[in-house]
Design the sequence.
């Protein structure tokens, strides 16, 4: 394991849910996004929304512009999920420490 900064990875499933939610909120269908991104078929978009793969950086950039958000707002990190699931004020310190250790241990293996 490297001794430098440790960065969280992207949660594909939650990112897909966020992309789908933003598309719906802004009134875009899968077909609309397909045409805006010049895709020959809608399957990649469905794979993004199911959390199977991530869009390319080019596609993220265009979708961010179309959906009026920053590219980073389309992506959900695993750290963000853990922070949502563990409200720190409501959980004893030892449980928070254990949860963080479990996350670190999973990344280390």
Sequence:
């Amino acid at each position: 394991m490297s001794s430098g900064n440790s960065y969280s990875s992207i949660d594909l499933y939650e990112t897909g849910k966020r992309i789908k939610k933003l598309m719906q909120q802004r009134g875009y269908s899968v077909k609309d996004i397909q045409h805006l991104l010049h895709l020959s078929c809608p399957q990649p978009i469905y794979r993004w929304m199911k959390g199977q793969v991530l869009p390319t950086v080019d596609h993220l950039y265009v979708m961010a512009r179309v959906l009026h958000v920053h590219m980073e707002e389309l992506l959900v990190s695993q750290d963000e999920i853990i922070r949502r699931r563990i409200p720190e004020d409501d959980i004893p310190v030892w449980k928070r420490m254990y949860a963080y250790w479990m996350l670190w241990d999973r990344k280390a293996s």
Notes: Residues 35 and 45 are 11 Å apart (CA to CA). Residues 93-108 form the longest helix (16 residues).
